[in-house]
Every structure is written in C-alpha cells, then in structure tokens.
Write a structure and sequence with these properties.
This protein is an alpha+beta fold and about 240 residues long. It is about 30% helix and about 20% strand. It has a 6-stranded antiparallel beta sheet with strand order 5-7-8-14-11-12, with helices on one face. A 4-stranded parallel beta sheet has the order 1-2-3-4. A two-stranded antiparallel sheet has the order 6-10.
C-alpha cells in the first residue's frame, strides 16, 4: 500500500496482481479471475453447470465492489504450457467461453497466438515460435473486443452496466444483459453439447437488436425461440 501511494505520486499507474484475493485490491487495480477460468474449463468438460456460474457471480456481487477488476481469459502462458491449449481443455466450447470471458464485467486477456487458433502447448522457458498461419480467429476476437471498447454497457467498473441474468426455459443456457446510458448488450450462451431452442423470459429485453457476428437484425420476444447450436452463442446489441 505504501509503494502504491508513492507510485501514484509520480504518475497514475494501473496495477495487476497475479493473485486472486480481495485484500490485495487495496493496492492493486485488478486481479486474476482464476476461479471463473476453472469453472469454464469444468463446464466444458461436463463437470460443472450453469448453476456454478450463478453461484460465482452471486459471490462476486457480495464480496467485491464494482470497481474491483478481474482479468478473465480462456488461456495464458501457465495454462497453455502446463494444462493444455483452450481446445484441449474446452474442446468445442472454447469460443463460447471466450464470448463469456469478454462480455461479463471484467477485463480481457488474449494470449499469444489465440487469434491464429494456436493448437499447441508452447515451451514455458524456451523460445517456441508461433505458427501464425491465416489468423483464423482474428475476426472473432476483433468483433468481440471492438464491442467491449465501443459499447458503454461492457465498460469496466462503474462506467459499465452490471450483469443482470435473464431467465430462460433451459438450465443449460446462461443468458444475461448489461445496460448503460441507453446502450444494451444481450448475451445468450448454450453451455451444453445439445442444440437448444431458447425462450427468454424478461420484459426488459424484448425488441430489435443487431447481431455482433452476423450484423443481421434480430427480434427478441417472449414467444420467439432462439435456436442455438451445441455450444452456440449469440451477442446482440442496441442503443446509441
């Protein structure tokens, strides 16, 4: 805490702790979101469910302040080298979990090579060049991160909108909305290996949106089911 005070007297700094604990946020601005990362891995492996996500975000709302930042990710150097790529750990759910990690309150880490669909474990201490190939996921990450940058609903801390769960007809679906200053983002995730026809049950989300990944118009209503492929995802936005 003393060091942080002295650093701020020189110039403003943003500090990330490679740790996950409330007490270090008295000096640091952001901590690693390890718990959510492990939940995402386990959901992809069929070991946990949407109920575990709900319990996690309920705890975050209770224990932490809105300006306590978490850094969320589907891969990083430790995970890639020791536990496997996101495709080893998450399989076909990898992109779905990436959508979740970018759109919930927090900041996003993109690990080296993810935009090129890195499918190998990099050596931890030795030089291990990445085969950049054709940047297969570049457009995917660019669209996600541009939305996070441009939409106030997805901004961080009190500058963004809180996560509000949206009820649906299926326990395998994790859907939520975030709203800020007239801008709204609606995210619907099928966290299962089965196709789902999702009915969203919330009056505040009805209406017309633009789909992030197709740039098409989508109308959401209580009686209009949304078809999602196994591990499918939908990111919709509207407003300013």
């Amino acid at each position: 805490n003393r060091v942080r005070t002295r650093l701020d007297s020189i110039k403003p700094v943003f500090m990330l702790a490679e740790y996950e604990s409330k007490e270090v946020l008295s000096a640091f601005d952001m901590i690693y979101g390890w718990e959510l990362h492990h939940i995402m891995n386990q959901i992809a492996q069929g070991k946990k469910t949407v109920a575990d996500l709900d319990a996690y975000f309920a705890k975050i709302d209770t224990v932490y302040n809105a300006d306590d930042y978490f850094m969320y990710f589907t891969s990083n150097h430790d995970e890639n080298s020791w536990n496997g790529t996101e495709f080893e750990r998450m399989g076909p759910a990898a992109q779905t979990m990436a959508v979740l990690s970018v759109t919930v309150p927090g900041m996003s880490l993109i690990y080296s090579g993810q935009e090129a669909k890195l499918e190998k474990r990099l050596s931890f201490f030795e030089k291990d060049p990445i085969d950049w190939k054709n940047y297969e996921y570049q457009d995917f990450y660019k669209k996600l991160l541009t939305l996070k940058h441009d939409s106030k609903a997805l901004w961080n801390g009190n500058k963004g909108g809180p996560l509000e769960r949206v009820a649906s007809n299926d326990s395998s679906v994790f859907s939520f909305t975030r709203v800020k200053d007239g801008e709204q983002v609606l995210v619907v995730l099928n966290l299962s290996a089965k196709e789902q026809n999702v009915l969203l049950k919330n009056e505040n989300i009805q209406g017309n949106y633009t789909s992030l990944f197709t740039q098409s118009n989508v109308t959401v209503s209580n009686d209009n089911p949304i078809k999602l492929e196994p591990w499918g995802y939908l990111v919709l936005s509207r407003g300013k």
